[in-house]
């Protein structure tokens, strides 16, 4: 029946004599439900004869009506007066309770049920159990599954519902057993299994099952596989994800949900260009698609592109949701440019601005951008600060070398809110401000110390050259844990700063034995080691280590990016970047700065070079085209004698850039602030850096 017919049916119903037949009443109620004429149904029910009210069809449709109308009380009233309750009635009650978000009540009713549940009732019961998922639900669900008669095992809908339930109970094994028993597996069954694996974070199993599946994937499977590949990021996952991407039928390309998951996957594969290509294919771009693209830019170290999309969202008359704002704040934190931070902050709608998680990420943003004052202002606005609020504020103090303030806040925060992150933040703050006694007393108070907490303490000790104590902590840790390369790297970094070449060599040799497969750590370790020899004047040994590294470990290193703000615009430079329209001028300026530095006695330190030199490169040309150096040169083009330069770098500043920046600050009497992943370097015009060369 269509709408018009429902109206006609209701007219007919009204014209009926005083006691219409039950089937007419049934049709009348159905028409009322469809036309949302709720009051009329209540009137009809009141006029029904006891015999009609006893008709199971009438009873069931009335229950359905009350449930749809969220009138649980009347549904229960009607259900309780029914003498012979059928499976259909139970299933109707169950469905109604689930859609009214009362799945616990399904369990109550089921326990009182005195007839054998049929497959439809069990399907609904399993669905309720998976929603409740507490011990009681687990018992009821599993017991009913166990007692199921053999012929029920032919029912795909029932078994799929049971698989969903078992997966929600994190009982993967039983779900797999059941899955194997299903003879005619369809695409929905496969989809349920993969969804269950995803919920249990068993992404490898999603891919295994996908490879075994003899059916063509549908949209749902596509999204699940792309998602699993994006989570795993290993070679096999990348291969499967890409292969599916090139095989999916063309009509998938018009599905926004599929394309959004493709973009997310490609961004996590660091394939920005292809991700952008798929984004362009989305005809009706929604806020979710934008947020995935923007998040992808943040992951791939392109916060400027992320920020630029805000205008595009607004041009398309879309309203950015809270996810988008959090991503934008994240982009600002990456960029750490005060003006951009303020620009985004001013646009956040006020109801959102008052939400705690937004305020928490704003504290983090200001802390990273070096504005403790603004971070404090937000902190004071937070109603009932939580663990994240405190950690964000403590970390802001730490990043800006305000160790004492960090400790004070840590001491004043409610004890029960302290967690691993707080411990790491406060220890890090102690470490950067060289507050050893405080670090020790906090460290000793921590009930359970994990790898990261201990590494932070080792960092604190190594910065103060207390290597014996640092090594004791490692020994203690390794008694009950596998060795951690992060701990060794931390000591090595301290040993480099104190130019202890014997200790450094010992540690690096040990790393080669302990972590033969951790190439990234070994590369960083080897760079530190060659730095030490170089700083001791043993350039031959430094060069040997460097060449060895290139030969044994390859040359894959992350390229650095720097951002700087000139006349209100944020400009981005990558290492060896030739993309800027003024690049020739910039390189000439960088060379000019280098020549001046050399006149002041500066020598390039080749130990910081991590790749083999190509034919047209020299040590000088490579080091002076590091992204920070290009950013500084750009300032000198814009202004003859800049007095203030702010730069954000996505990696650790290399020692050569650190040394040249100190000199530049001194020679040109310029204040330079460089924020790298580790800390904020404040270079003063007296030629020193606030990190006291611990970086
Ligand atoms: Zn550098
Ligand atoms: Zn520094």
UniProtKB/TrEMBL annotation:
One GO-annotated biological process of the protein: RNA modification
Keyword Glycoprotein among record annotations: no
Keywords assigned by UniProt, alphabetized: Repeat
UniProt KW Repeat keyword: yes
Family annotation (InterPro entries): DYW_dom (IPR032867), PPR_At4g14850-like_plant (IPR046960), PPR_rpt (IPR002885), TPR-like_helical_dom_sf (IPR011990)
Gene3D superfamilies: Tetratricopeptide repeat domain (1.25.40.10)
Example GO molecular function: zinc ion binding
Record NCBIfam families: PPR
Protein's name in the database: DYW domain-containing protein
UniProt organism field: Adineta steineri
Lineage summary: Eukaryota, Metazoa, Spiralia, Gnathifera, Rotifera
């Amino acid at each position: 029946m269509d709408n018009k017919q429902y109206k006609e049916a209701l007219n007919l119903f009204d014209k009926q004599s005083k006691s219409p037949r039950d089937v007419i009443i049934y049709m009348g109620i159905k028409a009322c439900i469809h036309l949302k004429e709720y009051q009329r149904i209540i009137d009809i029910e009141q006029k029904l004869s006891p015999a009609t009210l006893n008709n199971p069809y009438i009873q069931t449709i009335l229950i359905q009506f009350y449930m749809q109308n969220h009138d649980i009380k009347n549904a229960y009233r009607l259900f309780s007066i029914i003498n012979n309750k059928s499976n259909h009635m139970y299933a109707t009650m169950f469905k109604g309770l689930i859609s009214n978000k009362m799945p616990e009540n399904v369990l109550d009713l089921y326990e009182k049920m005195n007839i054998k549940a049929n497959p439809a009732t069990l399907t609904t019961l399993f669905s309720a159990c998976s929603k409740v998922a507490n011990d009681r639900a687990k018992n009821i669900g599993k017991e009913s599954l166990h007692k199921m008669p053999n012929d029920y095992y032919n029912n795909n809908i029932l078994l799929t519902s049971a698989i969903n339930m078992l997966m929600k109970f994190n009982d993967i094994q039983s779900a797999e057993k059941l899955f194997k028993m299903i003879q005619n597996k369809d695409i929905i069954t496969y989809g349920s299994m993969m969804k269950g694996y995803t919920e249990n974070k068993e992404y490898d199993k999603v891919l295994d099952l996908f490879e075994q599946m003899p059916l063509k994937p549908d949209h749902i499977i596509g999204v699940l596989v792309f998602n699993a590949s994006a989570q795993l990021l290993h070679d096999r996952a990348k291969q499967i994800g890409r292969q599916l991407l090139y095989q999916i039928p063309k009509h998938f390309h018009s599905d926004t949900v599929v394309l959004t998951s493709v973009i997310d996957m490609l961004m996590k594969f660091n394939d920005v260009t292809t991700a952008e290509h798929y984004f362009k294919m989305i005809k009706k771009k929604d806020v979710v698609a934008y947020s995935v693209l923007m998040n992808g830019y943040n992951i791939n170290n392109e916060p400027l592109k992320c920020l630029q999309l805000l205008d595009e969202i607004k041009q398309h008359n879309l309203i950015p949701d809270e996810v988008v704002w959090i991503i934008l704040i994240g982009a600002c934190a990456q960029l750490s440019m005060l003006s951009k931070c303020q620009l985004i902050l001013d646009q956040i709608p006020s109801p959102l601005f008052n939400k705690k998680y937004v305020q928490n990420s704003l504290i983090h943003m200001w802390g990273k951008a070096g504005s403790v004052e603004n971070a404090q202002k937000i902190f004071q606005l937070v109603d009932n600060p939580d663990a994240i609020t405190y950690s964000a504020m403590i970390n802001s103090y730490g990043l800006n070398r305000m160790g004492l303030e960090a400790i004070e806040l840590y001491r004043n925060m409610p004890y029960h809110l302290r967690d691993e992150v707080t411990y790491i933040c406060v220890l890090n703050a102690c470490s950067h401000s060289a507050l050893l006694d405080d670090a020790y007393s906090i460290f000793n108070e921590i009930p359970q110390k994990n790898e990261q907490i201990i590494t932070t303490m080792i960092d604190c000790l190594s910065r103060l050259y207390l290597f014996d104590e640092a090594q004791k902590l490692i020994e203690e840790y390794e008694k009950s844990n596998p060795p951690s390369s992060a701990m060794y790297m931390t000591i090595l970094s301290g040993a480099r700063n104190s130019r202890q070449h014997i200790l450094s060599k010992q540690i690096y040799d040990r790393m080669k034995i302990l972590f033969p497969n951790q190439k990234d750590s070994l590369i960083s370790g080897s760079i530190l080691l060659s730095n030490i020899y170089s700083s001791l004047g043993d350039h031959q040994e430094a060069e040997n280590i460097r060449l060895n590294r290139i030969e044994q470990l390859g040359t894959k290193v992350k390229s650095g990016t720097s951002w700087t703000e000139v006349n209100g615009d944020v400009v981005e430079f990558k290492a060896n970047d030739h993309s800027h329209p003024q690049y020739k001028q910039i390189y000439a300026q960088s060379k000019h700065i280098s020549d001046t530095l050399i006149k002041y006695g500066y020598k390039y330190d080749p130990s910081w070079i991590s790749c083999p030199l190509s034919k047209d490169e020299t040590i000088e040309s490579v080091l002076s085209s590091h992204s920070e150096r290009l950013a500084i040169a750009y300032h000198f083009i814009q202004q003859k004698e800049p007095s203030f330069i702010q730069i954000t770098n996505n990696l650790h500043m290399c020692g050569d850039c650190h040394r040249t920046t100190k000199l530049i600050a001194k020679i040109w009497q310029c204040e330079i602030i460089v924020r790298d992943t580790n800390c904020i370097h404040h270079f003063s015009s007296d030629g020193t850096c606030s990190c006291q060369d611990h970086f």
